[in-house]
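Before the break, one more example. Copy the sequence into your notebook; we will annotate it together after we see the structure.
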Amino acid sequence: MKQVILSPLKIPATKTIEIPGSKSYTNRALLMAALTDSPVTLKNPLFSDDTKAMIDCLNQIGITTTIKKNEIIVEGSIKDVKENNFALNTNLAATVIRFLLPLLCIIPGTKTLTGEDGLNQRPIGELVNGLRQLGAEIEYLGKEGFPPLKINSSKLDSKAVTLNGDVSSQFFSALFMIAPIIGGLTITVEGQQISKPYIDMTIDSLKHFGIIVKNNSYETYHIASGQKYTCETYAIEGDFSSAGYFFAIAALTKSTFILKNLNPNSLQADKKILPVLEGMGNKINYSEDEITIVGGDVKPITIDMIDFPDQAQTLAVLTAFADGKSILTGLHSLHVKETDRLKATVNELQKMKIKTEATNDTLTVYGNTPEAAAIDTYGDQRTAMSFAVAGAKIQGMIINDPDVVNKTFPKFWDKLKELGIDIKEVA
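Here is what the structure looks like once it is written out:
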């Protein structure tokens, strides 16, 4: 099994780091460009396993793309799709399988949609139920509520849909994006809408493509009929999900990092880690297209993370170094990510001799003095990158299966080396 062994920063560092484009924005933009009649140029996209999966699937159904160094040109659109039997595999990309499913319901042919084993264990039933309300004919080819799927319909009706809000915001985003093509849509939220910033991101992206979504306090959403996708060029902002690891390393090592290609006014959910770090005792400075963190302290916290659960593992590792008890809540969605992230975090922090407890929705970390350990990553890129944060502080952290980062951040280990963290690969 491949491993990397990390050696920490020798002294607090002052570094400048270029953050790659957002995966979330890239895959949204690729889907929306495919719904636009004329070619769309995407600037500063993320090139990763997840975005490659989206591009490959679009190409397979007949939507052409051209890839250049720092851009993707989506030349084709769904109007180019001809009737055929399509077998699409989205690998491990949840955004891709969820965003593609509604699109496949409105193109001709018979379509099967699947992923690799880890993705096929992630729920999609609520989205299927919503599409069936619109007239979709979708079959489960395996376990009820999970991929793989067979889609027999080629059109959807414009009407009202009700969706459970506490499973995944991606189900809502997927329907938002297809709504203008089917003549508009009204969606009613059952229960609590989780990950609201991701809803805001999708609404913001759609606005750039000429589509307006009316958000009624996250209780109902309305996309009016008569709207049409229009866009020539779309610039993708840097990824706060990726930036979060470097913000945490700066706090942990009292370093000063300038993170470039970040929009200070971004709507991305994971930007919410910054006020948390300020509350811990770190200074954050905002300027055009960059954010500077001056690391100062790591204090215990109690924080509701319902809106940005993808930063929970990063904060859990960080609070392992705080002197006292930290409580992270709003985490029930972590059970259905690439792995059960709550369970994985408890397991791996306990290896580091940190007492950790979890309920269905809560993670409690009793900060102390963590010890180096060999971290299992469970096929989950965020587990790998979050626990790598500890390697910036303590000698000998080992990350098993480090290549899982290719899913969303292929250059992660190179960026750590740029900071001065020594990384030794072991086959």
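The chain has two domains: 3-20+238-426, 23-222+229-235. The chain has a mean pLDDT of 96. Try to locate both features in your own notes.
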